[in-house]
Design goal:
The complex is a heterodimer of chains A (677) and B (177).
Chain A lengths: L1 H29 L2 H30 L6 H6 L6 H6 L5 H22 L5 H25 L23 H4 L1 H25 L4 H32 L10 H26 L3 H24 L12 H25 L14 H31 L9 H24 L7 H7 L1 H18 L3 H24 L7 H10 L2 H26 L1 E7 L4 E4 L2 E10 L6 E11 L2 E6 L2 E5 L4 E5 L1 E4 L3 E10 L22 E9 L2 H18 L24
Antiparallel strand pairs in A: 1-10, 2-3, 3-4, 4-5, 4-6, 6-7, 8-9, 9-10
Helix pairs in contact in A: 1-2, 1-6, 2-5, 2-6, 5-6, 5-8, 6-8, 6-12, 8-9, 8-10, 8-11, 9-10, 9-20, 10-11, 10-13, 11-12, 13-14, 14-17, 16-17, 17-19, 19-20
Chain B lengths: L1 H4 L2 H18 L18 E2 L10 E2 H4 L4 E6 L4 H16 L4 E6 L3 H11 L5 E5 L3 H6 L6 E5 L5 E6 L4 H16 L1
Parallel strand pairs in B: 3-4, 4-5
Antiparallel strand pairs in B: 1-2, 3-6, 6-7
Chain lengths: 677, 177
């Protein structure tokens, strides 16, 4: 009964979305306030019904209702409650329901908090938002019904993929979706602006908080996914340039560009058609990401729904949404009046360079991800483009971008003073020198790694210099600096924090790529390995079974200079319901570095035909285990830096200009569009 | 001229969309087998205890057109394709050999007792070693072997009636000519 209620709620939400897509648009065209206002009520009702559907599905998972096919496929009565709940979106159908739930949540948020939007724009935005909703709700109802019953119901479920039973991954999809779907709001704003044929500074101000929120969620989602890959996959790596990783990375890159270009629209009334294009592209790439993951066009460990029928449906959505919006763009964008002019050396110009580099980087990732498919289309062989391609193309684009960050943020709007900016960065230059010399003394080469650390120091120190400049630290009396710091706009604080975070990420990536130490060795009980000053002794194994898995646990005693540092327990787990083994790395972090141990296979597996399955071999005292030990310097900084950058985004989001209910700026304050071109 | 510039994104997208549409026409389950058109690997596997058919080796398979199916009791899609294998076995169209892959013998025996046994012989590959030689990376997988003992076709995932009618049976008929 609950499942049918959920299904019915989805159908009602679809019907409401259909009306919400059409009626407000007519209202906005005719200037009919009642029809336009209908959008607000509809958006809230649509959200309510999807929430009911999602609640019903969650209920079915929590009580393990095995008459629902989806629960059978991806849940099990013995699973911990947390993973029963996260199992809701650990599969194709459920994750699509989560997608529309978040979409409707954003729509409802615009409806509720959008008091400061002009009614016509608000109606059009909500209408576009509803069109996206119609497409995805129809997709769910027609091809991926999560509430399908199964008869007769089996005694128990097939369980969730054990590799996905992990707190890090449990919250990875919702955050990623917050980001993806957050860009849908920006997309709706862009399309609504194109329909109206007007983009002004106020538009930039409305769009920015949504971009920030989406970008921050996406950052957190990607960081969480990469952290999960790091500790769960047991390869000691944190980013694999996997097609599905790239699918989430491309909207992130475009989102970062959009974040910066929207500032130019807001402050200087320039770069309008470019910003609109970025807004369309950010969501388009989110859709393409969904398409790639859901259609099985690219094979990947992540692609859990390989179904051509669904692929065709998503492709149709893609063509209508992206093709339609780009057609609208081609028609309307040329008539957008471009505003403020600026000199080649100015903050605007800096942001243009930022945008060009980020856009080019997105293009390289896009080509690298889809090149194998393209080659096959040309009748060529099946190839895959690996990390070497991305490292060779992506890194050279990022280096100049990151180098320019501190300089650009010190330039003034309209016309900047390059020499002045560079002289003010002397402190940052000193920091770079100190760091590079220190690294040279401690580690020696390679040159690339020294440059990378120098770049990280440049970013971090540059962010601090810019902040110190703003509050006139050490130039004005201290009390005045404090006063200035207190009154500094939150968006300025946000920029400083976010840029600093990027510096931290760069340091982490550089150090771990250049100076990771890996030891792979057969170890018997009592053997020891020396790594980076630590002695790791293999003390034996024991059993550590969980509620739904069996586990063999290695015991490793870590000492440094004879002093005990830690005991580490890497595990090999076996999930009997799925017949699937997993490895659990043991990680000990000092913030400056991680010690990372993976327990591998035993030397001579049991002969076939013998008693127990050999996923969890019963070792003899002299059994040798393959053990992989990594020493990863600064690797935690990658995720710490990401969290700092997200924090910067959140601080910027609380800026009073973005705050809900902030007083509207009067029209006169908005710069008049200049008669350019 | 300037207007044309604004058409560039649309044109680029159309190209990408065509490219995607092509990508969809590929069957993602058709992963080329490293063994395709090569002789089957040499192997001998013990029989499943409690199941009334012999074990499986390369000699058993060679000499006639045959189907080799990789299955396991823990594998859900195997359960999906099982009725199709049962029907095929009842028609005695082609000998079906099973490789019981990464499975406990007792579980597999119970599974076959419950659902029926379509296999003329079953090799118990508990460690998955022989599976590696066959290039198996998931169950179920199905191979069609010709008279000379060469792998002629590999299908990944549960056999559907459509695949059976449109690909597998015509291929068997052609190989038997």
């Amino acid at each position: 009964m609950i499942a049918e209620a959920g299904h019915f709620a989805l159908l009602l939400a679809l019907a409401i979305a259909l009306i919400q897509a059409i009626v407000p648009l007519i209202g906005a065209a005719r200037g009919d306030a009642a029809l336009m206002d209908f959008a607000r009520a509809a958006a809230q009702a649509q959200f309510a019904f999807i929430a009911v559907a999602f609640g019903c599905l969650t209920w079915a998972f929590v009580v393990s209702d095995f008459t629902v096919s989806l629960v059978v496929q991806s849940s099990h009565s013995a699973k911990p409650l947390l993973y029963k709940v996260t199992g809701v979106w650990g599969n194709h159908e459920g994750s699509m329901v989560l997608w529309v739930l978040i979409l409707a949540l954003f729509g409802a948020a615009i409806a509720v908090f959008g008091d400061n939007l002009p009614p016509a724009l608000r109606a059009r935005v909500l209408s576009v938002q509803a069109m996206i909703g119609v497409a995805f709700l129809a997709f769910i109802v027609l091809t991926s019904n999560p509430f399908r019953r199964v008869f007769p119901p089996p005694a128990d479920g097939n369980g969730l993929n054990p590799i996905l039973q992990d707190p890090g991954l449990a919250f990875h999809p919702p955050l990623l979706y917050l980001g993806y779907v957050g860009f849908s709001t920006v997309f709706s704003f862009a399309v609504a602006a194109l329909i109206e044929g007007r983009v002004d500074a106020a538009w930039g101000r409305w769009v920015r908080p949504w971009t920030l929120a989406a970008w921050a969620s996406l950052t957190l989602g990607i960081a969480l996914g990469s952290w999960w890959a790091y500790y769960e996959l047991g390869w000691g790596g944190w980013w694999f340039w996997d097609p599905v990783e790239n699918a989430s990375f491309m909207p992130w890159l475009v989102g970062a560009a959009l974040l910066h270009s929207a500032i130019v629209v807001e402050k200087r009334d320039a770069l309008k058609s470019w910003t609109i294009l970025l807004a369309i592209l950010a969501f388009s790439l989110s859709l393409i990401g969904t398409f790639l993951v859901r259609s099985g066009v690219l094979s990947s460990v992540h692609a859990f729904a390989v179904d051509p029928a669904r692929g065709v449906f998503i492709l149709v959505i893609l063509i209508v949404a992206i093709g339609g919006s780009l057609t609208l763009y081609a028609i309307r964008a040329p008539s957008l009046k471009s505003g403020g002019l600026f000199a080649p050396i100015s903050r605007e110009a800096g942001l243009v360079v930022n945008n060009l580099l980020l856009a080019t980087a997105t293009l390289t990732v896009f080509l690298g991800t889809l090149y194998p498919l393209f080659l096959e289309a040309m009748g060529g062989a099946k190839v895959s483009v690996g990390p070497p391609f991305f490292n060779a193309t992506f890194v050279p684009l990022m280096v100049p971008l990151l180098f320019l960050v501190p300089i650009g943020s010190l330039l003034a709007w309209k016309r900047g003073d390059l020499a002045g900016a560079l002289t003010r960065l002397w402190a940052a230059a000193c920091a770079v020198l100190v760091i590079v010399l220190a690294a040279l003394w401690l580690q020696g080469g390679p040159v690339g790694a020294l440059l990378g650390l120098g770049l990280a120091a440049w970013l971090m120190a540059g962010a601090l210099v810019e902040w110190a400049e703003r509050i006139r630290l050490f130039r004005a009396p201290f009390a005045e600096s404090v006063n200035r710091a207190v009154n500094l706009p939150r968006s300025a604080w946000g920029m400083t924090i976010a840029h600093f975070g990027v510096g931290v990420i760069v340091a982490g990536i550089t150090a771990t790529s250049a100076w990771q130490i890996e030891r792979v060795q057969l170890m018997r009980v009592g053997d020891a390995i020396e790594i980076a000053g630590y002695t790791v002794r293999f003390a034996g194994t024991d059993r550590a079974d969980g509620s739904n898995y069996l586990s063999r646990r290695g015991i490793f005693e870590v000492t440094r200079d004879g002093r005990a540092v830690a005991t580490m327990y890497p595990e090999k787990r076996f999930f009997p319901v799925q017949g699937m083994p997993t490895t659990e790395a043991a990680i000990r972090t000092t913030i400056l570095a991680d010690l990372y141990i993976v327990l591998g296979d035993i030397e001579a597996p049991n002969a076939p035909g013998g008693g127990a399955p050999n996923f969890l071999p019963e070792p003899r005292p002299d059994t040798a285990w393959t053990v992989r030990i990594y020493y990863n310097p600064l690797v935690p900084w990658i995720w710490i830096g990401a969290v700092i950058a997200v924090l910067g985004g959140v601080v910027s989001l609380t800026d009073r200009r973005h705050r809900v209910g902030a007083p509207r700026r009067s029209r006169a304050l908005v710069p008049e569009p200049a008669q350019g071109d | 001229m300037r207007r044309l510039l604004y058409l560039v994104p649309l044109a680029a997208f159309i190209a990408v969309a065509i490219w995607f549409a092509f990508g969809l026409t590929r069957d993602p389950s058709k992963v080329p087998s490293a063994l395709l058109d090569r002789p089957i690997p040499e192997f001998t596997l013990p029989a499943l205890a409690g199941v009334n058919v012999p074990g499986l080796g390369a000699e058993t398979i060679r000499g006639k057109v045959a189907m080799v199916n990789v299955f396991a009791s823990w594998c859900v899609p195997c359960k999906v394709e099982h009725p199709i294998l049962m029907r095929l076995a009842a028609e005695k169209r082609v000998p079906i050999y099973g490789i019981n892959w990464k499975d406990k013998g007792a579980d597999a025996a119970r599974w076959l007792a419950e659902l029926g046994n379509p296999y003329a012989a079953i090799g118990h590959d508990e460690s998955g070693r022989v599976g590696i030689e066959w290039g198996v990376y998931g169950a179920p997988e199905t191979f069609i072997i010709d008279r000379e003992g060469r792998v002629r076709y590999k299908y990944v995932g549960p056999i559907t009636p459509a695949v059976l009618q449109e690909t597998i049976l015509p291929l068997i008929a052609q190989l038997e000519k």
